[in-house]
Design brief:
It contains 13 helices and eleven strands. The strands form two sheets. Strands 3-2-1-4-5-10-11 form a seven-stranded mixed β-sheet, with helices on both faces. Strand 7, helix 7 and strand 8 form a beta-alpha-beta unit. Helix 1 packs parallel to helix 11, helix 5 crosses helix 6 and helix 7 packs across helix 10. 48% of the residues are buried. Bound molecules: 6-O-phosphono-beta-D-fructofuranose. 6-O-phosphono-beta-D-fructofuranose (F6P) binds next to loops.
Length: 361
């Protein structure tokens, strides 16, 4: 008996979405003679409003190396899913109706934290759902690795590498801001890979005095330049102590003063060291281009593992990686949980051992 599978890509894009969809599709086409894949356009929007296209095997050819998503994506916040749209449409009921009208056997959701919360909601509402862990941030609970992360780390690393040569020529302090939303995985990895001197993460609040001390120490040792890798969610010790409401107010004030956190760090460190500072923000380039080899392999494995779950009719799971093996984790266990960097983990300790400052001690 054949299968009818719905698929959508939701939230911020990444390099390896197409590679993952290809992994699912190729495996299903390989397993069954009669497979129909429905691609919903622009994430959950397509499922809500019945905007989709019936995919053909050729749609999944030649896309292993193609970044972005052939289905398009959009952000549909989980917290608004229970709120009717401008025309009073109940979005959850609409999604269930589309699923039922199309007689789907399963819906495959490629998405990050918010998207997997909605996937869990739909699973609780009785739909057969399988999640696949997409995000450059690597902050999805229940999986060691998300697809998109390694490709984005490569780009951030390359950005810091490029800064290294010009920083060395001019003898300046450079601050490179790395994406990652509320977590520091990308900054930690790219910072170590590119030999940053200071790494500032949301999980390890920094003291500007400590950062300045390490920059001054380098200068005293005759080093003409320094590189600071700053996570976009980095926070000072002072701010981290504020109660939630006050912190929100402070961050809103900072947003009026600086385009982003790297500029704030730049001002603090410039004043404390007297050195010439430059700020670089690679921004969305980190989500662009082709997936790296690691992600192509990861996406192929995760996609194939998702197809296997479909063949066994095992639904309600996120397909993830544990100890380099594909695994399944109930969506209900991961929904709403953030995987953050542990300030005491061995990677941070080893980075400190080679002399990288995290601005905390
Ligand atoms: O979650 C991926 C991510 O790129 C984050 O690292 C970043 O904070 C955010 O998305 C940017 O979102 P947008 O593309 O909506 O500006």
């Amino acid at each position: 008996m054949g299968k009818r599978i719905g698929m959508l890509t939701s939230g911020g894009d990444c390099q390896s979405l197409n590679a993952t969809m290809r992994g699912v599709a190729k495996s299903l086409y390989h397993m069954y003679d009669d497979v129909e894949i429905i691609g919903f356009l622009e994430g959950y929007k397509g499922l809500i409003y019945g905007d989709y296209k019936v995919m053909k095997p050729r749609d999944f050819s030649g896309i292993l190396t193609q970044g972005g998503t052939i289905l398009g994506t959009s952000r549909q916040p989980f917290k608004l899913m229970r709120t009717p749209d401008a025309n009073g449409l109940d979005k959850v009921e609409a999604m269930k109706n589309t699923y039922k009208q199309l007689k789907l056997d399963c819906l495959v959701v490629l998405g990050g934290n918010g998207s997997q919360k909605t996937a869990n909601l739909l699973s609780e509402e009785g739909l057969n759902v399988i999640g696949l862990p997409k995000t450059i941030d690597n902050d999805l609970w229940g999986t060691d690795m998300t697809f998109g992360f390694q490709s984005a780390v490569d780009i951030a690393t390359n950005a810091i590498d490029c800064i290294h040569t010009t920083a060395a020529s001019h003898g300046r302090v450079f601050i490179v801001e790395v994406m990652g939303h509320k977590v520091g995985w990308m900054t930690l990895h790219a910072g170590i890979a590119a030999g940053a001197d200071v790494i500032l993460l949301p999980e390890i609040p920094y003291d500007p005095q400590v950062v300045a001390k390490s920059i001054k120490k380098r200068a005293a040792e005759g080093k003409r330049f320094s590189i600071i890798a700053v996570a976009e969610g980095a926070i000072s010790k002072e701010d981290a102590k504020l109660p939630k409401k006050q912190l929100k107010k402070k961050l809103a004030e900072d947003a009026q003063l600086y385009p982003s956190v790297a500029y704030k760090v730049g001002k603090e460190i410039g004043e404390l060291t007297g050195q010439e500072i430059r700020v670089t923000v690679p921004g969305h380039t980190q989500r662009g281009g082709s997936p790296c080899a690691y992600d192509r392999v990861l996406s192929t494995r995760l996609g194939a593992a998702a197809a296997e779950l479909i063949s066994k009719k095992e639904y309600g799971y996120l397909v993830g990686m544990k100890n380099n093996e594909t695994t399944k984790i109930p969506l209900s266990e991961i929904a709403g949980k953030l995987k953050m960097v542990d300030a005491e983990c061995s990677l941070v300790k080893e980075a400190k051992l080679v002399g990288i400052s995290f601005g905390d001690e």
